Amino acid sequence: MAWPRVVRCLCLCAAVALATAAQGAPATGSGKFFCCTDASGKQVCGDTLPRECYGRAYRELGQSGQTVREVDAPLTAEQRAQRVAEEEQRKEEEARQKEQQRQDQALLNTYANVGDIEAMRKRALDDVDKSIKAAEARIAEIRVQRKKFENEAEFYRKKTLPPEVKKGLLDTEYAIRAQQSIIEAKRKEIGAIQAKYDEDRARFLDLQRRRGVR
């Protein structure tokens, strides 16, 4: 039977009406009621939002006495700051994922298989090796030039060196150091190349596994 349900609804509406009357709130006839828990933990209801509910979470009840809407309490300054931080973190994560997807697609567009990765690794290492050998050859040439100035300097061991001899010794010394710096930088580049293609290979194989490609 529907009697118990009707009785419960009538009782609820009557209780809300009494609470409203006790607070002096005028009846509007809208059939809606608003309820919240006040600062003392007491349930407060009215056919308009009671003053005690301002700044608090409240429920809106329909004519049947059932909750038709729940409204959260306004956020505190700390909660707003936390929500802003969470939103920023979410955006950063989305941007990171998009960038990773872009890099993954670029990787798949660049290499057809692992053999392509190794071929490009070898090409990059060969280029570095050529640069190192070119610098070493240049050092050998400079040392031949320097030897001439060193031989001339032997005649002036206990005398003042002529300006052109002194300049030649300094210039060749700086030139040798410059080429040695190039060699050092290129040798460091070898490690960076190995790391890059190791990373590309690992990521490529991982993407292939995810796509079910063997």
Explained architecture:
A hairpin with a 5-residue loop joins strand 3 (58-61) and strand 4. Residues 1-29 have low confidence and may be disordered. By secondary structure, the chain is α+β, with helices and mostly antiparallel strands. The chain is built from four helices and four strands; from the N terminus they run H-E-E-E-E-H-H-H.
Largest sheet: 4 strands, antiparallel
For the termini, the CA-CA separation is 66 Å
Gross morphology is: elongated
Q: Give me the number of helical elements.
A: 4
- How many strand units? 4
* Major sheet strand order: 2-1-3-4
The secondary structure category is alpha+beta
Tell me the strand percentage band. Answer: 5-15%
Question: Any chance you could write out the topology, listing elements then pairs?
Answer:
Elements: H1 3-23, E1 33-37, E2 43-46, E3 58-61, E4 67-71, H2 77-110, H3 114-154, H4 163-210
Antiparallel strand pairs: 1-2, 1-3, 3-4
Structure at a glance:
With 214 residues, the protein is α+β, with helices and mostly antiparallel strands. The protein is 67% helix and 8% strand. β1 and β2 (43-46) form a beta hairpin.
